[in-house]
Amino acid sequence: MFQQYARYYDLLYADKDYDGEAAFVADIIRRQNPDAKSILELGSGTGLHAMALARQGYSVTGFDLSPEMTIQARNRLSKTVLPQGVSVSFEKGDIRTLRLPRRFDAAISLFHVMSYQTNNSDIEACLTTAFMHLEKTGVFVFDYWHGQAVTNDPPTVRVKRMEDHTMTVTRIAHPTIRPDDNLVEVRYELTIQDRTTGQTKQVCEDHRMRYFAEHEVERFLKGAGLEPIEQGEWSSSQPTKAGTWSAYVVAVPMAAHGEKTH
User: Fold this and answer.
1) In terms of domains, do 56 and 144 share one?
2) Which residues lie below 8 Å from residue 249, measured CB to CB, with a gap of 6+?
3) Mean pLDDT, residues 222-231 taken together
4) Residues spanned by the domain of 26
5) Which of 44, 48, 68, 119, CA to CA, is 20 to 30 A from 91?
6) Reported pTM
7) What confidence category does residue 27 fall into, taking pLDDT thresholds of 50, 70 and 90?
8) Do residues 51 and 77 make contact, with C-beta atoms less than 8 angstroms apart?
């Protein structure tokens, strides 16, 4: 996944409020750990959340499995002047097996990275990575596809069209629900038109996304030594509803609650 899609990713999500989402996450981190300065980002993509959090005053270390996205993130970083005392880095890495010789004040995994972990062992591995890299006072924040909304309001074929001065991209998303596996398989069909030459090309990629019930998220977190302390509707802090497609959870190491950890 993302081998070709990554080239058009930022254009397709140019309407996404990365600054607003970063402010939402920063507020959660400040409430739980006011002295936090360092963030580990699991699934950093093209770096837009990391750069927005850097503007909030956090140093961010990002890892992503996609080399194409990591290159784009580094290119963005090379053209950015960071606030004084703030550092940002992007590396290619598998967030299921990542082990670094340091811990962080916070860990994040945004824009449904966890929903791309489609089997139990992958989810458990990613959450263990977060746990292993958090300080005792650390906080972990991630978002995910909320199962109640997916089943109550199943996804349908959707068309999105975005353009800039170089190209026009039209994306058709064809979803197929696999309820026995809590999965949605999405075939993305992209038509890219060069606005200078008028030439077009086609790109197809298949993405598999897992959706979760809230009690399921809690079970996975506790199995990794993390205590969920807050859940809600992504970017609003309101309780999840039947139509809430994107939910978030906040967790801390169990030791912070007097629990026994791994």
Assistant:
1) yes
2) 141, 142, 143, 144, 214, 217, 218, 221, 228, 230, 231
3) 97
4) 5-148+211-257
5) 119
6) 0.94
7) very high
8) yes
Assigned token pair, 121: 């062992």
Residue 45 phi, psi (nearest 5): 55, -135
> Who contacts 27 (Cβ-Cβ below 8 Å, separation ≥6)?
none
Name residue, tokens 């990542």: 98
Which residues make Cβ contacts (< 8 Å) with residue 84, sequence separation at least 6?
Answer: none
Residue 247 shares a structural domain with residue 188: no
Q: How many angstroms separate the CA atoms of 33 and 27, rounded?
A: 10
Q: Are residues 219 and 250 in the same domain?
A: yes
CA–CA gap between residue 260 and residue 254 (Å, rounded):
6
Average pLDDT value for residue range 243-252 = 96
Residue 188 is assigned to a structural domain of this protein: yes
CATH of the domain at 202: 2.20.25.110
CB 102 within 8 A of CB 73: no
What are the tens digits of pLDDT across the range 160-169?
999 999 999 9
> Residue 3: its pLDDT value, please?
62
Rounded Cα distance between 130 and 104, Å, is 9
Mean pLDDT of 20-33: 97
Cβ atoms within 10 A of the Cβ of 201, count? 10
CB-based contacts of 179, cutoff 8 Å, min separation 6 = 151
pLDDT digits over 42-64, tens only? 999 999 999 999 999 999 999 99
What is the three-class DSSP state of 31?
Answer: helix
> Do the Cβ atoms of 217 and 231 come closer than 8 Å?
yes
Cα distance from N-terminal residue to C-terminal residue, the chain: 33
Identify whether 262 is part of a domain.
no
